[in-house]
Amino acid sequence: MLANQELREYELSSLEPRKRRIKIKLKRHDIHMMLDVPDYGVVPRYTPIPSSSQVLRAHTEFKKLLEPGIAQDDSFHKRCAAEVNVINIFFPDIESPAIRICFTAWLVFVISMDDILETLPPHDGEVALLDSIQIVRSLPESEQTGTSTDTRIQGLTRVLHRHCTHWLSEKVAESFFEAACDVFRAHINELFFLQGHIPNDLSTYMGIRVRTIALNPFFDIIKSEFLPEDSRFNAVWGKLQKEVCRAAGLQNDLIGLERDLEGGERLNAVIVLMASENDQPREPGEELLTRYINQVTAEHNQSTAQAIDLIAQINQNMGTIYSKKVAETARHIILLCETHLKWCMNAKRYHMKIEDEVSTPSAN
């Protein structure tokens, strides 16, 4: 009962987005970031979704399997509710309990996997990721690489696979796990990037980042669940997903920049850009840091602008045949530009100010 009281739900104020410019001030530098987002006006919802309790119960059982031995006290149940709440804000108008259950499981799995990868030597990390690909493809253990003594990630992957195959149809699960495999492969590329085996420039980094942000498995479930098959594989969906993933990845990097600078983190678009131009990323001056932040902010705003243009193309080219389904699917995907930023800022306790707004074409 206590955990149920912790649930938060959201809804859209409008089905027609407005492009808003959000002003965000860094905490320890006198620098403002100006981020453009398509804004649907996501606000708290006061009429609960009937399936929310079911989602929380299923997620709690998943977490027990993911973290065996953890004390199942009030703190544990509050964390479970907080994780469900992340998906509630990411996808406020998706009500299917099965989808929300698997979305929450994937979110928590990715965070846990990232934490473990940071502790592993590169070889062990690569083995774990290759094994995970084999696991979600349901291949026998004899075909897995199996040369690492640390198998924590493989264990998490087996729990995720069993959980999501229970809740998703075979068709949807297949799409989901294929997208998950691409996330695993991207993390292998990230290991190569950190070891200097591939170019350490912004273009290479962003080619990896749009995949390690791990949003495509969400999007592929949405497409498989809501779109007719003949429109699901239109190339425009991939373009839209890429721009949204790019925007979300850059939001993470910009909002987390100060922490990454302090911690010596290399996987951040601003830091990669500085290092590729031979500037010292650890203690950059205010003017230099502003220049690089503005460059990365411009990349973000270009992606959100392109995502908005793609929404218009999707509705124009496919909306006459599958008007409602196409519009809903497109909205579920592009909403992440807004909701992911809200979540990032809330998690890192930043405050934002709406500077201006510009009307954009309807996404319906």
List keywords for this structure.
364 residues, mainly alpha, Farnesyl Diphosphate Synthase, three-stranded antiparallel β-sheet, two-stranded antiparallel sheet, 5 strands, disordered C terminus
Description:
It holds the Pfam family Terpene_syn_C_2. InterPro entries: Isoprenoid_synthase_dom_sf (IPR008949). This is Terpene synthase. The protein has 364 residues and is mostly helical. It has a single domain (2-41, 49-359), classed as Farnesyl Diphosphate Synthase. 64% of the residues lie in helices and 8% in strands. It has 15 helices and 5 strands. The chain has a 3-stranded antiparallel β-sheet. The chain has a two-stranded antiparallel sheet with strand order 1-4. Strand 2 and strand 3 form a beta hairpin. Helix 7 runs antiparallel to helix 9 (216-226) and helix 13 crosses helix 14 (286-318). The longest helix has 33 residues, at 286-318. The radius of gyration is 20 Å and the shape is globular. The two termini are 39 Å apart. Mean pLDDT is 89; it is low at 358-364.
Layout of helices and strands, plus pairs?
Elements: H1 2-5, E1 10-12, E2 18-25, E3 32-39, E4 42-44, H2 52-66, H3 74-90, H4 97-117, H5 122-136, H6 152-167, H7 170-195, H8 202-212, H9 216-226, H10 229-232, H11 235-255, H12 257-263, H13 269-276, H14 286-318, H15 323-347, E5 352-359
Antiparallel strand pairs: 1-4, 2-3, 2-5
Helix pairs in contact: 2-3, 2-4, 3-4, 4-6, 5-6, 5-7, 7-8, 7-9, 8-11, 9-15, 11-14, 11-15, 13-14, 14-15
